[in-house]
Amino acid sequence: MNKILLSSLVALSLSLSANAADKAKTIIVGATPVPHAEILEVVKPILAKNGYTLEIKEFNDYTVPNLATEDGDLDANYFQHLPYLEEFNKNKGTHLVKTVGVHLEPMGVYSKKIKDIKELKEGSSVSIPNDPTNESRALDVLASAGLIKLNNNPLKTPLDIVENPKKLKFEEIETAQVPRTLDDVTIAVINTNYAMNANLNPTKDALVLESKDSPYTNYVVVKAGNENSPKTKALDKAITSPEVKKFIEEKYKGAILPTF
């Protein structure tokens, strides 16, 4: 009986050790589908060569993956720029930090009602993201096109518009849902990942596209304290490899730009 018990304990110990080893070599990353999850698929075989298994969890919002990274359910996430991350930490009390910058998604203005931004009429409706950083960014895009003028507040809302010659009417919409408003508004300012998910091509379909010198690079993000873990170092190295850079350049043809 003792031999059977001992054998069972040894088997259990070996199983637990194997599971711990598997966990140590599995990297779980949260990402939005396009382009982040697509880029991570290219990272998978690169990490596999170094003994790591990459598990990609897809999300269609910006809140859950950050909270899951804070709670430890994700090792990292990849979907956001620094202004959004800083605002999220401030509002939610999270302790998330960026590691490496991977790409830029120029924000664009889209429409099903007009073919040229010059056709925009007085009183036209405009949908923009409602989270603080992306809303401010969208208004900056409209200002760069000469449609409005803004004050100097760091994070802007429609209340910060000081000149609106066309009397544009703004609708603040949850970021992921902005593409769905295209049937109802004259123009919509959409993040590139959600635009592409809605089968919009930024370089072909956008009436206005954000400047390439935009500060909104998308980063790999981890919980503070994990920046130098073996998993994070392996992920950072793989996602900024020449193979990934080539993929971004060839796949997205300028709609998304590598920043490493």
Automatic annotation (TrEMBL):
Q: What keywords tag this UniProt record? A: Lipoprotein, Membrane, Palmitate, Signal
Q: Which family does it belong to?
A: Belongs to the NlpA lipoprotein family.
User: What is its subcellular localisation?
Assistant: Membrane
Q: What is its main location?
A: membrane
Gene that this polypeptide is encoded by? metQ2
Regions annotated as coiled coil: none
Q: What is this protein called?
A: DL-methionine ABC transporter MetINQ, substrate-binding protein
Q: According to its record, how does it sit in the membrane?
A: Lipid-anchor
Checking InterPro entries in the record gives: Lipoprotein_NlpA (IPR004872)
Q: Which domain of life is it from?
A: Bacteria
Q: Return the GO cellular component terms, semicolon-separated.
A: membrane
Identify the stretch annotated as signal peptide in this record.
Answer: 1-20
